[in-house]
Every structure is written in structure tokens, then in C-alpha cells.
Design brief:
Elements lengths: L3 H15 L6 E4 L12 H5 L4 E7 L2 E6 L2 E6 L5 E6 L8 E7 L2 E6 L6 E6 L8 H4 L12 H8 L6 H7 L8 H11 L12 H24 L1 H5 L30 E5 L2 E5 L7
Antiparallel strand pairs: 1-6, 2-3, 3-4, 4-8, 5-7, 6-7, 9-10
This protein binds zinc ion.
């Protein structure tokens, strides 16, 4: 599943190729997604310059001169730039054309979407964007903010991070890795963490996401080119999917437990509290 680093790298890749380019049309081969993609997208966007693409969580906000697109990659989406003559493959559902280039939206499972908004609408006011937590690299994300946000929350820290309502971008892999890095047990109630632990957690989340962004940065060229790799980044995980293997820090066995339907990997020794 594309996570925040893939979405951020996608954003950077798209901007590198199509920022300030004028949209010359669109081809919508399939409209049925998590939200319906307008079939007349080409008419809605034609002649408008792409001014910028912003990111909030895993949503991309495309700012055109007189309208916006909001896109999400869902479970299996990929947005890449191709030369216009690149043959269309299965699951290539939408092309947004910029002269000789097309941004191609490929999504086998169709849980993602692209929606169009009139210039009078504010993308940040969409309910799904409004309820997002803060950005992990923003100044708002710090130990004091976490302490304040988690004060009354008795659910586990793992569930709270995964929800995205306090901080965005900490998907299942990043969550397991960040909690290991910070030495925090995934099952501990969110309101039981000390300020010191929260400081470590903030740092750990930034470190883990940065590593993934760095790795993604090095594959940026591939990500937006015709020869690009299809897969998402593979973080060099220290605990995730390593159950039964020795902890890289203490040598004890990494455990896996299901938590609210999601697998949690952790070292019972290094992450006692
Ligand atoms: Zn350990």
C-alpha cells in the first residue's frame, strides 16, 4: 500500500515534470473508484496551468489556475509521467495530458480516486482532509502536542498512531518500526506515556519516515519514468515482519501479535513499557 513517503515522492516526481505545464486534455477509461472520477475531466481541466501540487497526509491537492484536483492512491494506485505515445496497460484508468506528456493513473484495486473541485471550493475543507492529524515533519508535531492530544485516550498508542487523527503518515510498518526505535510497547495506553517517551517517539517517527524518503528519493527517476519499478519502497525493517527472528538490539525473539486486526511486531525485552 502506498504510504506517506511514496505519496511525497510521487508529488516531487510529478512537480519535476509537469509544474507550470498547461493541461491539454484527459482520457478517463474508468470512472468507478472510491469516489467517481468525472468522465469530462479533459473539458474541466483543458487550458489550465498546473501551479503546484500540495500534500496533506496521503492526499495530493493539485492546484490549477481555475480548479483543483484531489487524488488519493488508495491500496494500489500509482501516478506516473509517461510520454504520450506510451502504450496503455491493464488498469491504466486515467491519463491527464500535458502536451507530449501524460500523468497516468494506474490502480488495479480501484480504492483510490481523483476528484475535481471548482476554484470556489477549498480542498482542505473536505471532511476526510479536515480530520487528519498534523504532519510529522511540521513544528506542530512535538511531545507537548502529543501529551495534550493523548491525555484522555486509553486506546493503545499503536491504534492511535495508525488512525492518523493525531499525526498522519505512520502506517503499519512505520508504526512498528517507530515504536521499536523509541522503545515503546505497542499495547501501552496512549495516555500512559511520559513526556520523555513522547519526545523519543516524535524523533523516532521522523527518523523512520526520513529513511524511507531518502530511499524513495534515490528511486525518484524510476518512479516517474516508463521503465520505473512498480513496487513501493521497502524499508529495511528492524522488527516489521521479523517475528521469530532475533532482535537486532538485544537478541531476544521478536514477537507478532494481532492488534485491532493489524499485525504488531515488537521486541518484548526492548519494548517493555
Ligand atoms: Zn530487543
Amino acid at each position: 500500500m502506498p504510504e506517506l513517503p511514496e505519496v511525497e515522492i510521487t508529488r516531487q516526481g510529478l512537480l519535476k515534470k509537469i509544474k507550470h505545464q498547461v493541461c491539454t486534455g484527459a482520457m478517463v477509461r474508468e470512472t468507478r473508484f472510491r469516489k467517481t472520477i468525472p468522465s469530462d475531466l479533459g473539458i474541466l481541466l483543458s487550458g489550465q496551468r498546473l501551479l503546484d501540487i500540495k500534500r496533506r497526509g496521503k492526499y495530493l491537492i493539485w492546484c490549477f489556475e481555475r480548479s483543483f484536483l484531489v487524488s488519493h492512491l488508495g491500496m494500489s494506485g500509482v501516478l506516473r509521467v509517461f510520454p504520450k505515445e506510451e502504450p496503455v496497460r491493464k488498469h491504466d484508468h486515467v491519463d491527464i495530458e500535458f502536451g507530449d506528456l501524460v500523468v497516468r493513473y494506474h490502480d488495479p484495486r480501484r480504492f483510490g480516486f481523483i476528484i475535481w473541485l471548482d476554484k470556489t471550493e477549498i480542498p482542505e475543507d473536505l471532511p476526510e482532509i479536515k480530520r487528519l492529524g498534523v504532519e510529522p515533519f511540521s513544528v506542530e508535531f512535538n511531545a507537548q502536542y502529543l501529551e495534550e492530544s493523548l491525555r484522555k485516550i486509553t486506546r493503545s498508542i499503536k491504534e492511535v498512531l495508525l488512525s492518523g487523527h493525531v499525526v498522519v503518515g505512520v502506517g503499519n510498518i512505520y508504526c512498528s518500526e517507530s515504536l521499536f526505535e523509541a522503545g515503546i510497547n505497542p499495547f501501552i495506553s496512549a495516555n500512559k506515556l511520559s513526556l520523555k517517551q513522547l519526545e523519543k517517539l516524535v524523533q523516532a517517527i521522523r527518523t523512520i519516515l526520513s529513511l524511507s524518503l531518502q530511499e524513495g528519493g534515490s528511486t525518484l527517476k524510476d518512479f516517474v519514468s516508463a521503465e520505473g519499478k512498480e513496487g513501493y519502497f521497502t524499508l529495511n525493517a528492524k522488527v516489521y515482519a521479523r517475528s521469530g527472528k532475533p532482535c537486532l538490539r538485544c537478541g531476544k525473539t521478536i514477537e507478532k501479535k494481532m492488534q485491532n486486526g493489524r499485525a504488531s511486531y515488537y521486541c518484548p525485552h526492548c519494548q517493555r513499557v
